[in-house]
Design a protein that fits this description.
Elements: H1 2-7, E1 13-15, H2 22-33, E2 39-42, E3 57-60, H3 62-75, E4 80-85, H4 90-105, E5 111-116, H5 135-142, E6 146-150, H6 152-164, E7 174-178, E8 191-194, H7 197-213, E9 224-227, E10 230-232
Parallel strand pairs: 1-2, 2-3, 3-9, 4-5, 4-6, 6-7, 7-8
Antiparallel strand pairs: 8-10
Amino acid sequence: LVERALADGATGLLLAPRWRTRADEEGDYGWLAALDVPAVLMERRPRPGSALHAMDSVCSDHAYGVHLAVQHLVGLGHRRIVFATRDDSPTARTLRSACARIADAHPLVEEWAWALCAPEAGQDGPYTAQETAELAALLRKVGATAAVLHGDVDALMLVQRLADNGVRVPGDCSVVAYDDVVAGLGTTPLTAVAPPKAEVGRAAAELLLQRLGAPRGGGGPVRRTELLPTLSVRGSTRAWAGVIE
């Protein structure tokens, strides 16, 4: 698609490569670094020291988004949390890493676990049995009273699976979704973290236009912009007052 766009006369590019695996990402570094037109990466963080380290990028600060979710749950009294993300995109890998760092460092998180939100959601395994466990079972094993899931649909499906197992949301388990596209549309509207997707696109477009309007090689230093997600509290989280058996 990029080659076609350039052949058709594109003078600048907004890029959000799929990069299902780290190998996919590293395989694209060479030709992306060699582009001879201005380009801005969206929701992609070039690896420090890589060929793309000096490429313009605009991203959501997903670590802050995880922080919002954890702070909200801890503030409600939850001390054991299960995180479930995909592992087949740069955003998913960033979220997985952020969950581990923030949960490990938080003094009030007593225990946490990470798992794939669905068996087909991982590309960079191998994964342990716990990391591919069914989430309702993992919640029981960890004694978790809360879960944070990457993806509204996966979070909504978890609420249904928990209900099928007699676990009420939010009475027995609080659930936070990470995306907030359809999180509010469930029978139990989900508390959710919303990355500022539209604002990322707008900021990236404005930066690209600035590059295109500057003399070749001008336009100031390379920019790596991060925008903060927000948290919307709805009906899927509440203060903890019981035990999952």
